[in-house]
Specification:
- The protein is of the alpha/beta class.
- It has a five-stranded mixed β-sheet, with helices on both faces. It has a five-stranded mixed β-sheet with strand order 14-13-12-15-16.
- It is built from eleven helices and 16 strands.
- Helix content is 40%, strand content 23%.
- The radius of gyration is 24 Å and the shape is elongated.
């Protein structure tokens, strides 16, 4: 075998050993042998090399099972770090996370972001804030995970299109390589992917098949199938542009009656104002009225109730269509509708059960999102550690 092939094989074997520690925290040499199918002879030199390189550390001895007690190893979580960034239209949440998926620190940076320049400025500000306290750890950053609303090509990390930020083929990888001053892996997720991963890893880990629908300023969908994000080339799943009424209002995509143009903040406000005016009731602070404000009035304002009931009914049509396509049993709803508490779950569950195919009806659960504020950045980090660490070029 050529020297270069030998070196490549050694590196591949080392990565497969590191990968074992992502699912099991503490392992003996025998455990690693079972997990990787590498020979005892190979592990006899690979394990000391990984210790030398500070990838793994000895953490004591295991239980007695005849013979010598085995040496136990764990990953050295401080060997490398990741930056995880959750982008919303109002700002970012940026966190520094170690390889054991522990959050070192996270900061929120609020600011106007509506084009490339303003977006980059906020990202730079977030990096500078964390760098101030953790300069030494920044030297060890090996990957960046970022979620953003839009159409993403996860293979290239390009944001193909993001309407709010006016991005067309925006190169996230090039941006972070420049801002960090070195080559790192960059994993780009769409906003609902990160929220779904947060739900999966921190709340619903026993549910490997589920959907996350965000209903806020538009409608977004992400799917998890067998514990992995469902992705196609240049990811689609643009649920917001599914037509539910061919005679409905015009959507910014040019078609009529898209769900995003009928169920989200703007159509809710429009409908609310119309009904109020019909009753001779005018709104003083129209400029600050939000989707959440209307939802909060649900139980004591007939107009708000009518608007939200209509929105929930339309949303149930879309969820039923989605269940008929993918036979997903659990659907998580995110966004201001969660302010309705358990009511949103029972209302949608009852409506969806009536609308889906009889054979898919059993066991449908609609749940509201109850994520901790750091769950999405940690969810992305955990997903990358579990599924991508073997492919990280910088290991
Ligand atoms: Zn549309």
């Amino acid at each position: 075998m050529k020297k270069v092939d030998k070196e490549l094989m050694k590196l591949t074997n080392k990565k497969s050993i590191i990968k074992c520690f992502m699912t099991k925290k503490v392992l003996s040499k025998t455990d690693i042998m079972e997990e990787t199918a590498l020979s005892s002879a190979a592990l006899s030199y690979l394990i000391p090399e990984l210790e030398e390189e500070e990838w793994i550390i000895e953490v004591g001895v295991g239980a007695f099972s005849g013979g010598r007690r085995p040496v136990m190893y764990s990953l050295n979580a401080q060997k490398g770090y990741m930056l995880s960034v959750q982008v919303s239209t109002k700002g970012i949440l940026i966190g520094l996370i170690d390889l054991g998926c522990q959050l070192i620190e996270a900061k929120t940076v609020i600011g106007l972001m509506n084009d490339e320049e303003s977006f980059i400025k906020i990202i730079e500000e977030g990096i500078e804030i964390l760098k101030k306290n953790y300069m030494a750890l920044f030297e060890k950053i090996i990957a960046v995970n970022i979620s953003i609303p839009g159409v993403i090509d996860e293979r290239s990390g390009l944001v193909i299109h993001s309407a709010h930020f006016r991005f067309y083929n925006f190169d996230m990888k090039a941006l972070f390589n420049r801002l960090l001053g070195k080559k790192v892996e960059v994993f780009t997720f769409k906003d609902t992917d990160a929220l779904l991963l947060g739900e999966y890893y921190f709340i619903h880990e026993s549910t490997p098949n589920m959907a996350y629908i965000l209903c806020d300023r538009g409608v977004g969908l992400s799917l998890l199938i067998l514990g992995e994000l469902f992705r196609t080339l240049q990811v689609g799943l643009e649920l917001g542009h599914m037509t539910i009424d061919p005679n409905g209002p015009v959507c910014h995509c040019g078609r009529r009656g898209c769900i995003g143009a009928m169920v989200s903040e703007l159509p809710a406000i429009k409908h609310y104002v119309e009904i109020r005016e019909q009753h001779g009731m005018y709104i003083e602070d129209l400029g600050t009225l939000s989707f959440g404000d209307i939802i909060k009035q649900y139980s004591h304002d007939e107009c708000a109730k009518e608007v939200i009931d209509k929105q929930v009914d339309l949303l149930s049509e879309v969820i039923a269509n989605m269940i008929n396509l993918f036979n997903i049993k659990k659907v998580i709803i995110g966004g201001p509708l969660t302010l309705l508490g358990a009511t949103i779950e029972s209302r949608l569950e009852n409506a969806v059960r009536r609308k889906v195919l009889v054979c898919f009806r059993e066991g449908i659960q609609i749940r509201r999102s109850e994520l901790d504020m750091h769950a999405a950045i940690l969810g992305m980090a955990k997903d990358v550690l579990l599924h991508q660490i073997g492919d990280l070029k910088h290991l």
